Amino acid sequence: MQNWSIAQKQRLVELNADKSITEREFESLKERDAAFKQLERDLVKENKEKLKNLMEREHIPLTLRVERELEKWLTEKEDYTRVATPIIIGGDKLTKMNIEQDNHLREQVFWVDRKKCLRPMLAPNLYEVMRDLHRITNKPVRIFEAGSCFRKESQGAQHMNEFTMLNLVELDSVEDGSQMERLEALAKGAMEAVGIDHYELVRESSGVYIETLDIVADGVELASGSYGPHPLDANWGIFEPWVGIGLGLERVAMVKGEYQTIKRAGKSIAYVDGIPLKL
Ligand code: ATP
Ligand code: MG
């Protein structure tokens, strides 16, 4: 039996062929090469159609549509307010998040200079903003941010160095003891908003937070949720119960678009809306 050559397989993956196609086997090389030619032609045509549809009708790529759907759900149904905070943060914030030398995240940080880095997560900024809003209003605070985060990753099909996190947080919105219940409701709401129904909620223990709730679909971690009171809260002057979920927007788009690699959903000059520009 013959498999695709490495170059053929790469090209088929690039053109977003189904897994069933990229794993096909053939009786002979001749049969394989003829099948490749035909498939490549069909896939190029299909991708051109998609590009045409995007530019003439849809106009907004999948990852950005996911962001809009979540924004709509949060602001219209859940009374959330969107905030935007700096991408460059002080390294001392990482210490306050307990991301110390022994934590793998510390090694993943991109340093801008000795004291400043690109944020690997939104939590440090959101901790501060939610605390101050609560101090001023003395009411439950519900805020979210969607923006770039940066981590040095060994790449792979589910990781990028630059990705988009949507982090929602609530402070003083639920009674102590019902945080996990609220997290589950928010996780369900998020999946409903983006139209994913085949997901699992997985409870786990993590280094930075004590208990987390992950949303997993097709074996891909889409989001991690966590809650407090938490030992870190004192570093930030927070004393009320809180819950929060960080969703990776490219991961959500990857699952929705049935992409084999996250690069298709990420910020890119090689792909537009998951469509390769080398057509
Ligand atoms: P993983 O274990 O998959 O590396 P993580 O648990 O380290 O992810 P979190 O810190 O929980 O990631 O970040 C929240 C969400 O952000 C993840 O669930 C994922 O959807 C997304 N995310 C994290 N790192 C990346 C990355 N390098 N590229 C794309 N998305 C990411
Ligand atoms: Mg996680």
Protein architecture, described:
- The protein has 279 residues and is α+β, with helices and mostly antiparallel strands.
- The chain is built from nine helices and eleven strands.
- It has a seven-stranded mixed beta sheet with strand order 1-4-5-9-8-7-6, sandwiched between helices. Strands 2-3 form a two-stranded antiparallel sheet.
- 32% of the residues are buried.
- The model has no long low-confidence stretch (mean pLDDT 94).
- The structure holds adenosine-5'-triphosphate and magnesium ion (MG).
- Magnesium ion is lined by residues 214, 221, 224.
Brief overview, please?
This protein is of the alpha+beta class and 279 residues long. The protein is 39% helix and 22% strand.
Structural class: alpha+beta
Which sheet architecture does the biggest sheet show? 7 strands, mixed
Radius of gyration: 21 Å
Query: How far is the N terminus from the C terminus?
Result: 29 Å
Instruction: Bin the helical content.
Output: 25-40%
Strand content: 15-25%
Tally of individual helices? 9
Number of strands: 11
Low-confidence stretches: none
Strand order of the largest sheet: 1-4-5-9-8-7-6
Instruction: Estimate the global geometry from the Cα principal axes.
Output: elongated
List the ions, cofactors and other small molecules found in this model.
adenosine-5'-triphosphate, magnesium ion
SSE topology sketch:
Blueprint: H1 6-14, H2 19-22, H3 29-58, H4 62-77, E1 81-82, E2 88-90, H5 91-96, H6 104-107, E3 116-118, H7 123-137, E4 141-150, E5 162-171, H8 179-194, E6 200-205, E7 211-217, E8 220-228, E9 242-248, H9 249-256, E10 271-272, E11 275-276
Parallel strand pairs: 1-4
Antiparallel strand pairs: 2-3, 4-5, 5-9, 6-7, 7-8, 8-9, 10-11
The protein binds adenosine-5'-triphosphate and magnesium ion.
Residues 214, 221, 224 line the site of magnesium ion.
